[in-house]
Automatic annotation (TrEMBL):
Keywords: NADP. Residues 11-308 form the Enoyl reductase (ER) domain. InterPro entries: ADH-like_N, ER, GroES-like_sf, NAD(P)-bd_dom_sf, Zinc-ADH_QOR/CCCR. SUPFAM superfamilies: GroES-like, NAD(P)-binding Rossmann-fold domains. This is NADP-dependent oxidoreductase. The keyword NADP applies. The keyword Cell inner membrane does not apply.
Length: 310
C-alpha cells in the first residue's frame, strides 16, 4: 500500500504522521511517479503550523510537499514523451508520499549523473529564482544584489544570473563566501553595515536587488538600487514590500500568470550539462521522520537543502 506523511490538524512538527493513501490515477496529461526523494521547503512548515491558514488554507488531512524526484510508474492516455521506468524530477503537490501524480509540463527527465536528492531539491528554488530574475528583467552587464545568497533560492539566483552575464553581489554568512565566490559572485557579510560593504565592492552601485532573506533589508535596498523601488523584489517579506513600495512575488505563476517551472528546470539542466550546477544538500532524512526535517528547517542556519528519502 502506498504511504505518505500528513497532518490532520495545524500545529508543531509532531502533527506530521505516517498514513496510507490510495493509488492515484494520472489524468491524460499526467504521469504517476514512484517517489524516491522529496524536497522540504519553508512553505511546508508555514502551512503546517497554521501561520498561513487565513491566506492559504489547506484541506485537512493534508500531505505536504511541492517537489520530488522519482521513477515514472504509469502514464496518462495523452502522454507520449514519457514511459514507465523513466527517471524524472519536478513540481507536484502532495510530494511527501511514495506515489504521486504530476503534470508533464512541470517535470523533466533526470540525467543519470544528477542524483535524486539534488534533483528533488531543485524545482521550487529554481522556479522562484528564475521567476524573480525575469520579473526584475535582470540583463547581461548589470549588477544584481542578492540578499540571502547562501540559501537554496539565493544559491540558484546567483547561478542563473551569472549565466545571463550579470555581475552578482551576494549577502551571506561568511561560512559560504568561498562557495559564492566559486559560483562567480562577490560575497559580502550580511547584517548591520551591509549597505556600506556592498558599496565598497560595487562602487558604481547596483541596478537591481533580489531579497530571498526576509531580513528587513528592503528600505536600504530601494535606496541603493539605481532603478529605485521598481527594481527591488522580495520573495520573503510581503508586508515590508508594501511598506517600502517594492515588489513582492509569490507562487509559481508569478505576476504574468505564467508557470515558469519548465523553463527554470531547463536552465538548471543547462548548468548541469556544463558541469557548473551546485545544489548543496543536507543529509537526507527518511520520509517517516519528516517531523525531524521540519524541526531542522525551522531552527534555521542551514546552508543546504533539506530532502526526504523514501
Amino acid at each position: 500500500m502506498p504511504e505518505a506523511v500528513a497532518y490532520a490538524t495545524y500545529g508543531g512538527p509532531e502533527v506530521l504522521q505516517p498514513t496510507g493513501i490510495d493509488i492515484p490515477e494520472p489524468d491524460p496529461d499526467q504521469v504517476r511517479v514512484a517517489v524516491r526523494a522529496a524536497g522540504v521547503n519553508p512553505l511546508d512548515w508555514k502551512l503546517r503550523s497554521g501561520a498561513l491558514s487565513a491566506a492559504m488554507p489547506v484541506t485537512l488531512p493534508h500531505i505536504p510537499g511541492l517537489e520530488f524526484a522519482g521513477t515514472v510508474d504509469a502514464v496518462g492516455d495523452g502522454v507520449s514523451a514519457l514511459e514507465p521506468g523513466d527517471e524524472v524530477f519536478g513540481r507536484a503537490s502532495y510530494a511527501y508520499a511514495t506515489l504521486l501524480v504530476a503534470d508533464t509540463a512541470r517535470l523533466r527527465l533526470r540525467p543519470h549523473d544528477l542524483d535524486v536528492h539534488r534533483a528533488a531539491g531543485l524545482p521550487v528554488a529554481a522556479e522562484a529564482a528564475y521567476r524573480a530574475l525575469d520579473e526584475l528583467a535582470v540583463a547581461a552587464g548589470e549588477t544584481l544584489l542578492v540578499h540571502g545568497a547562501g540559501g537554496a533560492v539565493g544559491n540558484l539566483a546567483v547561478q542563473f544570473a551569472v549565466a545571463r552575464g550579470t555581475h552578482v553581489v551576494g549577502t551571506a554568512a561568511e561560512r559560504v563566501h568561498r562557495r559564492l565566490a566559486d559560483l562567480g559572485a562577490t560575497p559580502v557579510t550580511y547584517g548591520d553595515g551591509w549597505p556600506e560593504r556592498v558599496r565598497a565592492v560595487a562602487p558604481r552601485g547596483v541596478d537591481a536587488v533580489l531579497d530571498t532573506s526576509g531580513a528587513d533589508v528592503l528600505g536600504d535596498s530601494a535606496r541603493l538600487a539605481s532603478g529605485g523601488a521598481a527594481r527591488v523584489l522580495t520573495l520573503a517579506d510581503p508586508q515590508a514590500a508594501q511598506a517600502h513600495g517594492v515588489r513582492f512575488s509569490a507562487g509559481s505563476a508569478g505576476e504574468s500568470g505564467l508557470d515558469r517551472t519548465g523553463p527554470a528546470l531547463d536552465q538548471a539542466l543547462a548548468l548541469h550539462r556544463r558541469g557548473t550546477l551546485v545544489v548543496p544538500v543536507h543529509e537526507p532524512v527518511p520520509l517517516a521522520e519528516a517531523a525531524r526535517a521540519h524541526r531542522l528547517g525551522e531552527a534555521g542556519g542551514l546552508d543546504a537543502k533539506l530532502v526526504l528519502t523514501t
